[in-house]
Design goal:
It contains five helices and five strands. It has 186 residues and is α+β, with helices and mostly antiparallel strands. Strands 1, 2, 3, 4 and 5 form a five-stranded mixed beta sheet that branches.
Length: 186
Amino acid sequence: MIKGTGFLKVAILLNLVLLVIPLQAAWDPTQKQKDALTGAQQKTMVALEKFKAIPDLAPFFDAADGYVVFPSIAKAGIGIGGAGGQGEVFQNGKVIGKSSMKQLSIGFQFGAQAFSEIIFFKDARATDRFTAGKFEFGAQASAVLIKQGVAVETAFNNGIAVFTIAKGGLMYEAAIAGQKFSFNPE
């Protein structure tokens, strides 16, 4: 009798453990927050995770007052080109608004491409310049194209640092000059 009772207790305990483990693994306390995100917000979070996964960008995330993430910018041109994308602006790790980017370029260019872009703002003054709604890159602006396994060697220039990750396409000409941004607070 004692042997049978011990076996029964072990069997019941094993069934309870097997029942609880899948329930515990399936529970995600952040799922409610994830479900509340719009498609655009989810794309921003995916792009942000990709940028945060690059170890060389960690000092920028640590030092920056704010940043704007554009998960997908589409660019195309044959002589005359254009680009555009939507993103979200973060300050102190929280979303403070939305941004849109437009670019018009004239010159030797051919093709199409898509890329993600992040712009870091070194201090509150640089963030405020962006959120004033009239921020743009001049002719001398440049971005660092991040490639797998390549060290990122750049610093803030005039209070900003820009990085891009290619998503696809082929285009001769990859300057960010002439980008104009708008900002809409949350």
